[in-house]
Amino acid sequence: MFTKSFGGVGINEAESYFLICKADAGLDSSAVLNISLPSLLHPFGVEAIHLIRRYPDNSAKALFRLTVVTHENIDDVISLFELSGLFDFIERDFVSSGASIAEEIAFVPDDPFVHKQWYINNDGSFPNGLAKAGADIQLHKAWAIETGSEEVTVAILDSGIKPDHPEFADRIWKNKAEANDGADTDNNTYVDDLNGWNFVDNNNLIRDDNGHGTHVSSVIGSNGNNAIGFAGIDWKCKLMICKVLDRNLNGFYSDWIEAIYYATDMQADVINMSFGGVEKSKALEEAVNYAFERNVMLVSSMQNDNEEIPYYPAAYSNVIAVGASNPDDTRSTSFINTIPGGSNYGNHIDVIAPGNYIYGLGLRNNYYANVYGGTSLATPVVSGILSLLFAHFPDLTNAQIYAKLMKSCDDEVGKPTEDVPGWDKYHALAGLMLFVHFQKQILT
Question: CA 23, CA 29: separation in Å to the nearest integer?
Fold first, then answer.
């Protein structure tokens, strides 16, 4: 809270808000950025404008984030914007968070921890015998056929990554068109975006300051068969790092939106989003559709309220919504045995994947590991499988791969309830081998 003067009028106890707006076709987007800010301060209270996205098919359209400082009800301010006729739409820029719960565990260096990754090949012994043999994704069999391709890129929208960890050696995506010279060499508006972008701080520093992003990245892409740590699902794909969550694991919709456009334009094949918010957003849905129409597969977590509550972007039709299962093949109703919460469920769900007692990398040093539970960890399991599929079937479209993913599910018929986690899509990835045994001509 603070006092500021706009146009000579004192405004006490003003509050700052972020709004997302799309410029109308009749308003040149370049003009918006060049408008004198004082002319916007009354009556809207706009203090800053950030360009999220220009639309290449229509130079007059663009997506912006506005910083508005006002003592008025923000909904009334939005109504004023709508009446101005300057924008296609305007909406709140909501803040939401990632979807996991962590417990930190120290391990002995050089110990291969694949036996902790029960979802690879579940023999029923982990954790503490509370498991069901065969409740896994048969990954050990899949690796005999496909371990990944350097030509496949997975964009990880999260809190960043520990880039110097040996498990990520030669795995982080490189923007070959960019030079580390302090200039925007590739003319994509991001200066020195060598490995991705930090959308939280608007710079190229992708280092994790929470740990969530590093853990998620390790599930997807830790180096496999290298005698240290864990084995990621895909051993060769490139990891494009888009930091959209802060150190507290919170993030603005506008950063998610900008990162989806960025990852798509930079040729990502899969976008992993282990986060979600309860508020719908037209701008977020447009970004999702933009990516899907360009053959990108989007995957997002259903969150951990143990309720039938849709979260976005997971609930959008062009996103794979992922719930979490336990080592005993049941829906996760608590995490790491005692922590309250549970995988959300509902008829918007697409797949259930292993999401409890998921071991991976941490931040403290190169041999420190965490065990997480949550739909945030089920999501990279799905993304990792999708990256293997893109590697093995490079000519398939995302729609074809999605259709086969659905066909591989172990269905459980029934309306979604606490006991029936999804809509005819229970243990989604148990039939992974259905993919890798198909021939390309069968799938086209």
Answer: 6
